[in-house]
């Protein structure tokens, strides 16, 4: 009987064990869920970080401004990939001219790793916090 109760409890809590790790496409943005407490969105049009939610609270978008590189990209090529080896990661790549901005999320990790490759040596990232 105890075994049955344990199995039933485990089955009912399975979604908690496998939190919503992964990404979805909501039409205008890729929404990345780290499987921890962080969910963020990247605009498919210009690569802006359009939402950063930690433990359900929105931290991006002061005065409806997105976080972005430089003065913000124009129309960009935005792609997303999910990998399982060598680690569970999601990689979003934004290409605008000679600039390549990459966002990486790791499963169970509440960080957004950002990498920028630019044709010249000047770059800045603007984070608009709510």
UniProtKB/TrEMBL annotation:
GO terms for biological process: pectin catabolic process. Residues 1-19 form the signal peptide. Residues 21-119 form the Rhamnogalacturonase B N-terminal domain. Gene3D superfamilies: 2.70.98.10. The keyword Metal-binding does not apply. The keyword Transmembrane helix does not apply. Keywords: Signal. One of its GO terms (molecular function) is carbohydrate binding. SUPFAM superfamilies: Galactose mutarotase-like. It holds the Pfam family RhgB_N. This is Rhamnogalacturonase B N-terminal domain-containing protein. It comes from Hymenoscyphus fraxineus. The lineage of its organism: Eukaryota, Fungi, Dikarya, Ascomycota, Pezizomycotina.
């Amino acid at each position: 009987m105890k075994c049955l109760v344990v199995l039933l409890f485990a089955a009912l809590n399975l979604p908690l064990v496998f939190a919503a790790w992964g990404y979805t496409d909501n039409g205008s943005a890729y929404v990345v869920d780290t499987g921890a407490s962080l969910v963020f969105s990247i605009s498919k049009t210009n690569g802006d970080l359009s939402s950063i939610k930690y433990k359900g609270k929105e931290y991006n978008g002061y005065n409806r401004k997105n976080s972005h590189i430089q003065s913000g990209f124009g129309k960009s090529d935005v792609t997303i990939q999910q990998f399982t080896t060598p680690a569970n990661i999601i990689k979003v790549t934004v290409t605008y001219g000679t600039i390549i901005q990459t966002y990486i999320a790791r499963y169970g990790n509440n960080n957004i790793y950002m990498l920028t490759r630019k044709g010249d040596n000047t770059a800045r990232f603007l984070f608009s916090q709510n």
